[in-house]
Amino acid sequence: MRLRHIEVFHAIMQVGTISGAAQVLHISQPAVTKVLQHAELQLGMPLFERVRGKLYPKPEAHRLFVETEKLNRDLQGIRRLAASLKGRAVETIRLVSTPTIAISVLPAAMSAWRRDFPATRCELATFHTSEIVNALRLGEADLALSLQDPRHPGIVAEPIAQGVMTVIAPAGSWSAADSLLPVSADGLSGELIGHADNDPLGDMVVAACEEQGVHPVFHTVVQTYQIARSLVEAGAGMAVVDPFTAASAIDSKVQRRAWAPAIPVQLFLLTASHSPLSHGARELANSIGATARACIE
Questions:
Q1: Tell me: the pLDDT tens digits for 85-101?
Q2: Multiple choice CATH, 92-162+265-295, 3.30.420.360, 3.40.190.10, 3.40.50.2300, 3.30.465.10
Q3: Is the whole-model pTM more than 0.85?
């Protein structure tokens, strides 16, 4: 029996009439009759007895129903899955990002991408990297952005932009000549804004300071680089932040200098190893990479 024969056969077994099967399958009654007749012709035997417009399955039909029931369920499942995948790939892209990149890079990148994909729905959420890994593994996100490579066997980490940790200070903190040169730990002065103890980049900065014989004291400690940037813009002190956050600071309120010795920072595109990106998602990733690289050049 062909797949169409099985669908019609199962519909008739469930509702007992040609008209009922036609309604279930959203086709005409003559089409149901024609498919059933063709199936019986192929099998070489009638499957139903016709009595006053109702169809009564013969013993052979019951046996056939048992054998084909699983195949019919699988067929329906495949069709639902195909419809779901098509709808998600064409209409919805689920992007998760760490807050740093969501604020500093994504607005311009999304604006550029939207010109070519005006009708594509994009759902954006902000997570920390550990939460991002879970979202990708569970199929709750299509792609993600982080300044960390989680080094997880089920996650592909693709570097799409690279810069260096950057010192930001309130405008007027350095001369024009000094602002062109990198600054090391002994060049930090005034109030220092620190990062939470579990922040990997913040830990690298503290370690670099201690290697230079400087033990920084932080009276203000923040959870995100954006808060540090806002405090610096308000004149509350200096901070060492990622290059993307530094680039997004207001020029009239902030000065920037590269940290020495340089601490490289990469922006990673994260995806689940078993889930290739749709065309729209890949183009969004390309736009994010191009925007990130442009903002730190």
A1: 655 545 689 999 999 99
A2: 3.40.190.10
A3: no
